[in-house]
Predict the structure.
Amino acid sequence: MSERLEDIAIAMVAKGKGILAADESSGTIKKRFDSINLTSTEDARRDYREMLFRADDAMKNYISGVILYDETLRQSARDGTRLADLIKAAGSIPGIKVDAGAKNLAGFNGETITEGLDGLRERLNEYYELGARFAKWRGVVAISDTLPTWGAVRQNAQALARYAALCQEAGIVPIVEPEILMDGVPGDHSIERCYEVTDLVLKTVFNELYDARVKLEGMILKPNMVIDGKNARKASVEQVAELTVRVLKANVPSSVPGIAFLSGGQSDVEATAHLSAMNAGYDMPWNLTFSYGRALQAAAIKAWGGKDENVPAAQAAFTHRARMNGLAATGAWTEAQEKNA
Ligand code: 13P
């Protein structure tokens, strides 16, 4: 693997491949395990992730990189192989979530700021030694009748830019993730309102990235799609694709090598259909792919249920979603392929 930031970034968005977001924090993975009545122990978390990373067909053909949580980057498989080495052996790149989560922003009622900048330089150097070649930081923006405020948008953009500059100094490609939530309060905003907020957030983020001297060739953007609120969903696949491509073209310089979407609570098939519609219908200067958490893992976790004997079924479920999204990353997915699986 080449170590230039540009080359790592290009490999992360290689045609027909995308990123597996397996970086659920301890709290989030507990919620996922609760849904299958499984206690979240260190071994259970290891077993689950080992199951995913050993799904060879999925990993080798469709997964360019995997975002890990701190614990996972330090963990070893049952046979003693480091999990990061399993990922590398499959030709995929290990990455690391480095933010410390979204916390209440002082003075801003109902808005958050993502923390984790203190000591980040040292942590990044250690993560590099442990094999991580890219990182992720998620800023969170919620939509309501009165939110977001300019102050919260700008402070989150500044934190993203400072994080990105520190990553590049450490030889690590930053995934810059400003997520506008689908499920704000009350979560019934229109797709036009989502466009307006996404436009403001992306403009602000790229301004801050310039000011922080971040090299755009050595980063990946991880945005939300432009979509209506979770409790008001009525936009068509074509509308989501059109408005998402429009907001990206209005804001993302062509020197950014790739854009990898979050799924953000969309159903598995919706997330795939939207990505495929964009790639099939539009000429774009960047590779457009997925960096899905829930939309890649929901079926697999259900099939697994915490039981060894279900590992093959869970790997098959994960491989299916990875393949569908791999097709979507080239615009070649159809509903028929979904059914024929
Ligand atoms: P979802 O695809 O489940 O939104 O997760 C992606 C992610 O990494 C959010 O930070």
